[in-house]
Each structure stands twice: as structure tokens, then as C-alpha cells.
Write a structure and sequence with these properties.
- The protein has 9 helices and 7 strands.
- It is of the alpha/beta class and 248 residues long.
- The radius of gyration is 17 Å and the shape is globular.
Length: 248
């Protein structure tokens, strides 16, 4: 028996990176998964790859800043597999620049995708969970940048901090419907994007981590699995750092 047998999960930004790893881990625990991503082809290919690994998976193009597309993504899960039991708001972008050089459009774009996108996902998933009457779990992917701030990322850091407030407020509103809402804050995780960093920058970040290494995408996904499952049945409004002890 898997931890998520018989449940259906929606993951935004699920076509690659940490989102794809989350989809694989939830699917491996028995969930049927729906990948939402603005890159329609990449999402379809990712779903095919999951299906080859024995996971019931489908995909749909989804711009998380468009509430109609988020509503359609949640409906696609219901129509394909059944009611949504798990929602993972993972979609995100970066538009890095220092405060004095950042364009207002780039600030707004990052906040809109991360924060408004998660608000849309939380809102529509919660309504579906309420309608089904069986509760559910919503997991927002924040970042350690939402706790300490990153140089050159005022937009990203602000959005990721905002996700903490969204998580706690929505957890209070949805508790009576047995819908739990939690957040995960990854630190330095080994992905294609982070491994492209200059060696000096990588080494500087590594030196700040008590465990002495970068995390792996699966280590983030396993925490999401815990929060999505009944193992975390009494956990809501929590923010879990997955950082190797960085910034304790």
C-alpha cells in the first residue's frame, strides 16, 4: 500500500526540475498525477515519462496567473482521475536584477507567477476539495529566500515570503473543511539551474550549510509527500525548511 493510494494530485510547474520530481515521488506513492505547466509540450512529455514508469499521469497547459486555466487544470484532474486530494503549487520563474536595475514588469511577473499563481491554485483546489467533502492537502513551494532574502532577487524573495503568509492564512480558513495547507522552503538544491552557477558562488553557498552538501530534488519531494499524506494529518499552517540546516 502506498501513502497516496487512491488519491489524485495536481502539480503546477510539473514538467521539469523539482516539480517533476515531486510528481514522480507522489506517483510512486500511489497517486494519480496531473502536471500543469505553461510549456504544454514539455508537460506532455513529462507525463509520458511518468506513465512509462508506471504512474497514472496526464498533463494540461496551465498559466497559473490565469484563473480560468487554473480552474481548468483542477477540473481536468476531476474529469480524468477523480476529485483532487493533493495540490502542489510549485510553478515559478526568475527575473533577477538588483533593486536599482530591476524593471517593474519583472518584479510584477515574478510575484504574479509565484504568489498569485499559488493563490489561484489554493482557491480552486480548495473549492474542489470542499465539494468532495473529504478534505485534502495543499502544499506551497516557497524558498529559503523567503526567510532571509537573496541579493538580486527582491522580486523572488518577496514572492516566496508572501507564500508563507498565504499558507498560514488559507490554513486557518480551510481547516474546518479538513483541508490542510503547508509550505516547504528548499535551500540549495542540486538542479540544472543551480549547477550552472559560477563555482565561487556555489562554494560560498555550500560553506553555509551545516550538513556540508547540496540537497537533491528527491529530498524536497519526500517532504512534500509527507505533508500530502496522512502521516501529516495534524500538520497545517507549517513551514518546513529543507536546507541542510542553512540559516537556522
Amino acid at each position: 500500500m502506498g501513502l497516496l493510494d487512491g488519491r489524485n494530485a495536481v502539480i503546477t510547474g510539473g514538467a521539469q526540475g523539482i516539480g517533476f520530481e515531486i510528481a514522480g515521488v507522489l506517483g510512486g506513492a500511489g497517486a494519480s498525477v496531473v502536471l500543469g505547466d505553461i510549456n504544454e509540450q514539455a508537460a506532455a512529455e513529462a507525463a509520458d515519462q511518468l506513465a512509462k514508469n508506471g504512474v497514472a499521469a496526464t498533463s494540461l497547459r496551465c498559466d497559473v496567473t490565469d484563473e480560468d486555466e487554473v480552474a481548468a487544470l483542477v477540473a481536468h484532474c476531476t474529469d480524468t482521475f477523480g476529485p483532487v486530494g493533493v495540490m502542489v503549487n510549485n510553478a515559478g520563474i526568475t527575473r533577477d536584477a538588483t533593486l536599482r536595475k530591476m524593471a517593474l514588469a519583472d518584479f510584477r511577473a515574478v510575484v504574479d507567477v509565484h504568489l498569485t499563481g499559488a493563490w489561484n491554485g489554493t482557491r480552486y483546489a480548495a473549492e474542489a476539495m470542499r465539494a468532495h467533502g473529504q478534505g485534502g492537502s495543499i502544499v506551497n513551494i516557497s524558498s529559503i529566500a523567503g526567510k532571509v532574502g537573496n541579493f538580486g532577487q527582491t522580486n523572488y524573495s518577496a514572492a516566496k515570503a508572501g507564500l508563507v503568509g498565504l499558507t498560514k492564512a488559507s490554513a486557518k480558513e480551510l481547516a474546518k473543511a479538513s483541508v490542510r495547507v503547508n509550505a516547504v522552503q528548499p535551500g540549495l538544491i542540486r538542479t540544472a539551474m543551480t549547477e550552472a552557477m559560477p563555482k565561487a558562488a556555489w562554494d560560498a553557498k555550500l560553506a553555509e550549510i551545516p550538513l556540508g552538501r547540496a540537497g537533491e530534488p528527491a529530498e524536497v519531494a519526500q517532504v512534500v509527500l509527507f505533508l500530502a499524506s496522512d502521516l501529516a494529518s495534524y500538520v497545517t499552517g507549517a513551514v518546513v525548511e529543507v536546507t541542510g540546516g542553512r540559516y537556522m
